[in-house]
Amino acid sequence: MPKPKKEPAVPHRDSPRRYLYLVLIVLLLLAMAGIWFFLQAGTPRLPAPVVAVKPAAIAPAQMVDEQQCQGCHQAQVKDWQGSHHQLAMQEANAQTVPADFNDASFTGEGETTRFFRRGAEYWVNTPGSDGQAADFKVAYTFGIAPLQQYLIEVGEGRLQALGVAWDTQQHRWFHLYPGQGVNFKNPLHWSKPSQNANFMCVECHTTGYKRNFDAVKNSFDSQWNSLGVGCQACHGPASNHLQWAAKKGDLLHAGFAVDLKDKDATVELETCARCHARRAPLGDGFTVGKRLMDDYLPSVLTRELYALDGKIKDEVFEHGSFAQSKMAEKGVRCSNCHNPHSNELKAPGNAVCAQCHNPAGKTPYTTVDGRGLQAKQYDSADHMGKAGAFCVDCHMPGKVYMGNDLRHDHSFSIPAAARDVLKAPSYAESMVLIRGGEPGAAQALYDQLARGNLPAIQRATLLVELPNYPSQQALALATKDLSHPAPQVRESAVRAVSALLPPAERVALYGTLLKDPVRAVRIIAARDLLSVPGQGPAWDSAIAEYEQVQMSLLERAEANLNLAMLYQASGRGDRVEGQLRTALLRDPDFFPALVTLAQWLEANGRAQEARSLITEQLAQHPDAALLQHTQGLMLIRSGGTANAMPYLRNAVRLDPANAQYAFVLAVALHDGGKVDEATQQLENLLQRQPYNRNARLSLIQYYLENGQEPKAQVVMQSWKKLNPGDPALK
């Protein structure tokens, strides 16, 4: 059972999907180059890196007992007591559990959970990973309002987040994923790796947390300095600060690695972002004093997480939303609006906004750029449209997550009705064209990237779209941003260049990036040059760092897959199969590793074993589109094209949004002589993804082969309107 450890060892759990999406997608992005080999067979205006300079004689700070802070910081402790931070994670007992554990039952998603007590202990009887009901002990509570979750002990040091939570407002049990079929076969089930709290959650609900995963034993010995988000979770280890307090010496930042009151808001924003952002970890915890992207890979404004105008869609935990805002650009920081110790607003209602948006047109904060503030009475019926309205109603619309938890958008955008007068932000207008694949999309994308005042997270997001609109101009824009001051932009620029240039031509561009001051940039650049040998000491160091990142995440199947890809690409083939099988040990339902293993076996003369592996798993998981698609491809490679077609069709039916499945089916239909059906598939695909270049190229070819030149010309002309500089048009 995880336990406190009074030694050095930070950061809130909100959504069980917090890392599911990022780990299954963002970490997989790191593996995409390696997977390719097989398939062929936020921060606002981030400045230069913050360097915490310490006198060489000062030993690294260590964690101390949080109670030692209370003697000198009584006012802060008073605010903190009873806050969501303090009570983020507690031992389950009569004082901390408000839920009904008096032999209560709840049935949802086809499973029944019973809540009961054994003496002073809290227990649940619920279906486990095998679908059989069993008794499990509740070890910890998670959160206090408007809902409370419970962490279940399952052995080997593992804590799992139960999918049934307690509504502290309506005093009822409810399921976090109603109507989504989350039973024991579903990856969102409480027993699955996606709900492992050691990896997903506890870091942001404790102070001084280390996962301490033992890859050999496949177990955790997780430790923390204290439950809840305490002083050192944000300020860092305090031993040197205590030394400073005793002697009042000249230690930098009074003995802390960073000064959260630094005039540069980035220091505070990145400290909060370690938990208040959608991000993937790059290690076990973080190092105080380093940049956010030394320890985490934050998400850009993806279409899955954000609406076209940047407003919240899925749960994103504030930072990515705020990083787009005008306020972030002007130097506003979290603590200008929120008391960081109580988590409450610094003023009630509209008064928190009126700190700056007032009749005087002045801000009380010296670190905030007040230029451009209008002297106006905003808190009035004239501005609001009615008396008693709130600023957040229009500028921070909310969405409910986890069943009953309302979260406000932090991009502070201008309401749609007002935009008609004030002119809609060109970023939002452009994204309608870019993601919709409409005429003028490429130029709209290029024009946006040519702007010099774009928030870094928006710029990084636009760079991700560049591969859909290749041209010499696109390459020039991506290349220029390899030296952008914001690490998130540099990281996205590498991804864009990777899609626009062959590996050998990237080498000359990545020299400085391999020595980048921020780890996320170094490792993405190094991984991108895997297929180009002999890069020198800088590349050797960066790729070793990439490998170390994966080694620090060995509890995740994704990291084991990444290592397998690395070993395959770097000539360590003897280690590939073992790493893939380890990935499946960590998560038997992680189908990307299963498919990669089958492809590895097939490529190494073990085709029958590969086919058996996929066939067996497909029998157990007939609704897995990836397995259906893989079975179809394997049959085609073995000469059974006719038998492959039902599987390829099933993949498209099960996952119609996957463009690759639809494209492969179209090619297979064409090669089988069903040209009309093939063109219909491509036409349907282009309706969903008008920017899909492979679909356009193939559709034009199929039309011409079929004597339908007018139709081919229509596709060609629409392509020219979309991206006239596309080299394929020549």
The percent range for helix content is: 40-55%
Radius of gyration: 27 Å
Low-confidence stretches: 1-56
Distance between the termini: 64 Å
Mean pLDDT: 90
Shape: globular
- Structural class, by secondary structure, is alpha+beta
Report the biggest beta sheet as strand number plus sense, adding barrel if it closes.
9 strands, antiparallel
Give the DSSP E fraction (strand runs of 2 or more residues).
Answer: 5-15%
Q: What are the salient characteristics of this protein?
A:
single chain; alpha+beta; two-stranded parallel sheet; 31 helices; globular; disordered N terminus
Write the layout of secondary structure elements.
Blueprint: E1 3-4, H1 18-40, H2 74-80, E2 89-91, E3 104-108, E4 111-118, E5 121-127, E6 133-142, E7 147-155, E8 158-161, E9 164-167, E10 172-175, H3 197-200, E11 206-207, E12 213-214, E13 219-220, E14 223-224, E15 226-227, H4 231-235, H5 239-247, H6 266-273, E16 279-281, H7 292-295, E17 296-298, H8 319-322, H9 326-329, H10 334-337, H11 381-384, H12 391-395, E18 398-401, E19 405-408, H13 416-422, H14 426-436, H15 441-450, H16 456-465, H17 472-480, H18 487-500, H19 503-506, H20 519-527, H21 537-551, H22 557-569, H23 576-586, H24 591-603, H25 607-620, H26 625-637, H27 641-654, H28 659-671, H29 675-688, H30 693-705, H31 709-722
Parallel strand pairs: 1-14
Antiparallel strand pairs: 2-6, 3-4, 4-5, 5-6, 6-7, 7-8, 7-9, 9-10, 11-15, 12-13, 16-17, 18-19
